[in-house]
Amino acid sequence: MIKPTDSALTASRLNESTKMIFHRRWVRVVDNFFQSRWKGLSVAIPYVWLVIFFLIPFFIVLKISFAESLIASPPFSSLFEWSEDAALKMTLIFDNFAYLWEDDLYVKTYLNSVKISTISTILCLLIGYPMAYAIVRASGTMKYLLLLMVILPFWTSFLLRVYAWMGILADQGTLNSFLIWAGVIDQPIRMMYSEFAVYIGIVYSYLPFMILPLYANLEKLDLTLHEAASDLGAHPITVFFTVTLPLTIPGIIAGGLLVFIPATGEFVIPDLLGGGNVLMIGRVLYDEFNSNHDWPVAAAVAIALLILLVIPMMLYQHAQSRQINN
Amino acid sequence: MSTQERDAFLDRPWKDSTAEPFIRIEGVTKRFGAFTAVEAVSLDIYKGELFSLLGGSGCGKTTLLRMLAGFEEPTAGHIYIDGVDMVDVPAYARPVNMMFQSYALFPHMSVEDNVAYGLKRDGVPKAETSQRVADMLSMVELLELQKRKPHQLSGGQRQRVALARALVKRPKLLLLDEPLAALDKRLREQTQFELMNIQDQLGVTFIVVTHDQEEAMTLSTRIAVMDHGQIIQVGEPSEVYERPQTKDIANFIGTINMFDGEVMSSNDSFLLRCPKISKPLKLPSQTELNIGQQVTLAIRPEKIKMTLEDPHDPSRITLRGEVLEFAYMGNISIYRVKIEGEVVLQITIPNLDRMAERKIEWDDQVFISWHPDNSLVLRD
Amino acid sequence: MPSRDKSITDMPKKRSTFLLSVLCFGMAFLYIPMFLLIVYSFNYSKIVSVWGGLSTRWYISLFESEEIWSALMLSLKIAIVNATFATLFGTLAGLALARFRHFRGRTLFTGMISAPLVMPEVITGLSLLLLFITLGDLIGWPEKRGITTITIAHITFSLAYVAVIIESRLSGIGETLEEAALDLGAKPLRVMMDITLPLLAPGMLAGWLLAFTLSLDDLVIASFVSGPGSSTLPMLIYSRVKLGLKPDINALATMIILAVAMGVLIAGWILIRQQKQRERDAQLAGAK
User: Fold this and answer.
1) C277 — contact with chain A (CB < 8 Å)?
2) Which of B91, C50, C265, C285 shows the greatest Cβ crowding within 10 Å of its Cβ?
C-alpha cells in the first residue's frame, strides 16, 4: 500500500528525475552538437572572414582593372550589364593594360622596381649572413641579447625609422655635417631624394627580415657536418662554401623573398627618401589612385604587380610549407 | 730475445717494451670551464691495433677521440701521431679520419660525392678519385647506390657510406665514434665482423669509442676502460674481463657477484669473513693480503656450479641456497639464488643437454660451489 | 659523452675578426639612426639637424597637441580591437591548419592565410577600399569609411600573422599530449580546452602583441581605407613628415622607441630568466 503522501512524494521525485533526465539529455544534445560541429565552426569563422575581406576584394580589383575609366563616382564603368534580352553581358576592356604597356613610364617603373629590390636583397644578404652567423656563434646571454637587438626594430614604427634617415641624409643632415667636419668633403653631397637613399632605406628596414630566417637555418645546422668536412681535409673557407652555404640555401631563399617581395611593392621608402626621382611601382599605384583618381589604371597596376610577384610568393610558400613538414 | 718471442710480440706489440708506439698520448687533460672532461690521460697505441675506449656516458672517451681528430685542443699534454706532435695541426691537416656517431653524411651530396669529398680536398686527380671511390664503394657493397642521397639509404647503408668516406683517404688512423650504436642488434653483429675484416685487410689503426662492453670485447685488440675522465684499466679483452682492477670495472664489464668482508687467516691460506654469511669464504691464493684488511671477493656467474646434491669437494667453496627465479635464454639459463640471509647470487648455467634429466626450478634447494682460484679479490 | 646534436653554437670559439666587424657594423647601422632621432629630439633649434642647445620644448608642444593625442587614441583603439579579434580568428585558423587535416577547401584556406603575409600593402589597401565602396553601393554598408573599415582591414592581415605563429607552435608541440588526453577518455572538445589552449597561451600572447604592433605601425592600408576625419597616428606623422623634418616628430619617435625598447627588454629579460631557470632545473634533475 502506498500512502497518498508517499505517492505525492514519489510523483514529485519522479518529476524531479524526469527533469534531471531531460536536463541531462538537453546538455547531451548541446554537447553532441559541439562535439561534432565545433571543428567546422572554428574553421568557418576565419574562412568566411578571409573570403569576404581577402578573396572577393581581389576579384573586385581584377574586375575593375578591366573596366573603363569614367569621370564619375565610382570612377569606372560597370563590367556587367543587363542587356535588353536579359542576358548578362560582360565587357572586358584591355585598354588599361595596353596603356601600361605603351606608356614608357610604367615599363621603366616596373624594371626599376625589380632592379632596386634585387640589389637591396643582395645587400641585405651580404650584411645579414655574416651577422646571422656571428649571432649563432655567440654564447649564452650574448646570443639572446643580439637576437633581441635584431628583433627590436621590428616592433618600433617603420615610418619613424625611415624618417630617421631623412635627418641623416639631408643636405644639412648628420652625415653631410660629419663628412664636412671630418674634412672629407667641402660641399654637402646630395643624398636625399636619390636611389642611394632608397637603397639605404630598404636595406635598413628589411635587414632583420633577412637575418632571422638565416639565423633559424644556421642554428639548426648540425655542427658534426662541419667537423666531418674538416676531418676530410677541408680548410674552414672550403667548409663554408661546400657545406654551410649549400645547407643554408633554404634560409637564404626565405630571407631573400621576405626582403624582395615587400621591397618591390614598397611605398613609404621611395616616397619619403626617393622623392620624385625614384620610380617604384608601389608609389605609382598610390599616386594613380589617390592623386590621379584613375582607379582602373591603379587596379591594372596592382594586377601587374601581383603577376610580377606571384612566382616569388609561391616560391616562398613552397619553402615555408617544406620547412614546416620537415 | 728469441724468434719465438719476437713472433709473439708481432701480434702484441704492447708486450714489447722496445716497440715504438704509433700514437702516444701524453698527460692529456681537457677542461671545459670548471668541468674536467679528460684528466691526465697517457696512452700508447700501436700500428694495426683495433683499440677501444670503453666507458659510460660522460666518462670522457668522446672528448679524447675529438682531441685525436683535432676538434678539441687539449688544455694540457701532447698527442703524437707517428712521432709528430699534433698540437698545432688543425683537424683538416691531420692524417686522421673519423667516422661520426651520427655518420654526418652531407645531406646535399650523393653517396659518390660524399665519398669523393675528402679526395677532392687533397687535390687528387679526377680519374684517380673516381677509381678510388668506386673501389671503396664496391668494398662496402654500395656501388649500385652511388647516385643516391643519404636520406634514401637505410641505417646500415649510411653506416657503410660513412666508413667508406673515412677510409677512402687511406688515413693512418681511423677514429670511430660509437660506430654500431645506431644499428639494430642483428646488423650490429654482422657489421662487427665486417669492420674487423676491413681493418685486417687495410692494416689501418682503428680507435673505437663505445659504451657497449660486448662490442668492445668482440672487436678489440685492447680496451681502455675510462671513468670520470681517467683511464682506469688498459688491457686485452680477456685481461679486462678476468682480471678487472676495480669493483667499478668488474661491474661495468659483464655481471659479477661480490661479497664485502674482512681478511682473516687460517693455516696457509686467507679467508674472508663476510658479515652476512656465517661461513668464512676462502680467498684465491697468490694474492697479496693483510689480515684485517677490508676487501671484496668477486665471482663471475658462469664460474659458479649449481647442483641439487652436495658436491663434497673440499677444494671448492660450497654454499646452500634456494632458487628465487630463473630465466631461460636458450643457450644459457640465468638463476638468482638466495643463500643465507639476504644475499642473492646470480649464476649462469649453460644448457648443455636438450632434455636435462631434472631441471632446477623455482624454490629448489641447491648447492652452489666455486673454486677459490676462479674468484677475484678487489679493493676499492 | 652523451650523444646530442651539436650546432654551430658549440663550435670552438675562435674569434673571427671578419664576423665581429660585420656584426658591429650591422648593429651600428640598425641603431645609429634611432640614436640620432633621440638626440635631436632634445634639440632647441627648429631646424632638426642644426644643434641649438638642449631643450624639452618639443615634448611640451607634443603633449599640448590635441591633433596628436586624438590620432594616438584612435590608433590605440583600432590596435586593441584588431589584436583581440585577430588573435581569436587567427588561433582558430592556426588550429585548423595544424590539427584538422582534411576539410573542404583546405588548399584555398592555406593560400588565403599565407598570401596576406607577402602581399604588398598597396594591393591589400586598394582591394579592401574597392570592396568597401562596392559594398556601400550594393547594401549601403559601410556608410562612411573610418575606424570600422580600418579595423576590419587590419584584422584581415593580422589574423594571418597570428595563424602562422599558432600553427608553428602547434606543430612544434606535437600531438602526443592531445593523444594522451584522448586516450585517458577526454572528448576532443575537452582536450582542446584542457590541453591545447593552455599550451597555446604563450603563442596567443605573442600573436596579440604582434597584431597590436602591426596595426599601430600601418600607414599604407589605413590611408586607403580611412575616411575624412579619421587619421591614425602613422597617417598624421606621414602627412607632417612628407614636408620635411619636424622636431616634435622626433620627440614622438623618441617616446615610441623608448616604450618599445622597454617592452622588448622586459620581455627578453623574462625569457632569458626562464631559460636559465629551466637550465638550472634540468641540471638539478640531472644531478639527482
Assistant:
1) no
2) B91
Q: What are the pLDDT digits (tens) for B147-163?
A: 999 999 998 899 999 99
Distance (Å) from the C-alpha of residue B93 to the closest C-alpha of chain A?
Answer: 6
pLDDT surpassing 50 at residue B34:
yes
Neighbouring chains to A with at least 3 Cβ pairs closer than 8 Å: B, C
Gap from B106 CA to chain A (nearest CA, Å): 7
Contact C1 B72 (CB under 8 A): no
pLDDT digits 0-9 by tens, B326-347: 888 888 889 999 987 778 999 9
Report whether B278 contacts B244 (CB < 8 A): no
Q: How many helices and strands (H and E) does chain A possess?
A: 15, 2
Inter-chain contact A324–C168, Cβ cutoff 8 Å? yes
DSSP single-letter state for residue C185: T
Contact A152 C260 (CB under 8 A): yes
Give the model's pLDDT for residue C12: 52
Residue A47 in contact with residue C109, Cβ under 8 Å?
Answer: yes
CB pairs under 8 A between A and B: 64
Instruction: Give the closest of A42, A130, A264 to C120, CB-based.
Output: A264
Say if the Cβ atoms of C31 and A159 lie within 8 Å.
no
What interface predicted TM-score (ipTM) does this complex get?
0.86
Tell me the three state secondary structure of residue B45: strand
Is A55 at the interface with chain C, CB within 8 A?
A: yes
Q: Residues A58, A63, A69, CA angle at the centre, nearest 5°?
A: 125
Q: Which pLDDT score, from 0 to 100, does residue C185 have? A: 80
Q: Which CATH class is domain B20-251?
A: alpha beta
| Between A276 and B333, residue with greater pLDDT | B333
Mean pLDDT score, A166-192: 87
* CATH class label, B255-378: mainly beta
Packed helices A104-137 and A281-290: angle between N→C axes, nearest 10 degrees: 130
Q: Which domains does chain C have, with CATH numbers?
A: 57-276 (1.10.3720.10)
State how far the Cα of A203 lies from the Cα of A208, in Å rounded to an integer.
Answer: 9
Of residues B280 and A80, the one with the higher pLDDT is B280
Per DSSP, the residues of A21-62 read HHHHHHHHHHHHHHHHHHHHHHHHHHHHHHIIIIIHHHHHHH
pTM of the predicted structure, to 2 decimals: 0.81
